[in-house]
Amino acid sequence: MSQVEALWERLVRAALRRERTGTDAYGRPESGIAANVPSSLPNNRDIDSILRAADEIQDEDPNVSRILCEHAYSLAQNLDPNSEGRGVLQFKTGLMSVIKQKLAKREGGSIDRSLDIARLQEFYKKYREKHNVDELREEEMKLRESGAFSGDLGELERKTVKRKRVFATLKVLGSVLEQLTEEVSPEEAEKLIPEELKRVMESDAAMTQDLVAYNIIPLDAPTITNVIISFPEVRAAVSALKYFRGLPKLPGNFPIPATRDADMLDFLQCVFGFQ
Q: Which pTM was predicted?
């Protein structure tokens, strides 16, 4: 069996394993209320992401998990206040039941929701520290740059899944934190979220740009965001697509991303008008 066939079988087995075990691309279980966000809700993926993050951090901090669930409910309520969409009423009822269960299991007295922002930003910092976020990507980049994909592919896959899961959760935490601060005065928000944390959140958010699912290989994306683009056979295919001298020169106003050179696909798009 060739290397290409072996790698393809590995990808297929991984996809089938996720389907069989009920996990998403980040290795998180597709179960519970997070797996039942109705498609009739606009931006249902945002709600789904929030609830998956809430499930993941439940054991680490039930209070923060409760904050995320309440925010997801608030989003659903704002998107469809009258529960007119298919399955929305059942979803809201189920989510409210989950929230009540979290409230019933809490320790201590009543909840002061004015402290939610402070809790969330403190957990954000602890979560980053626990998962060694600054080292996580650096280790993965070193492994990819080593070029030892055949022997270390399994390790690379595990590191990639972990990194994506961690940054997907950080993205949710940061997004919810920003939206919650919009409900307080700018002065109070500035006190609750220091400038240093804002810069960290912006930096983390930039690292989530490669967490987008593709149905084709994005050839012009940075190498560190696509393991498959580093395989020798894929590199050879990309090289074969490069623009060569025999082709007519592209118009000066034809847009080419600064991150790459023109290729034959650009020529086809220019001549025939398709991507």
A: 0.63
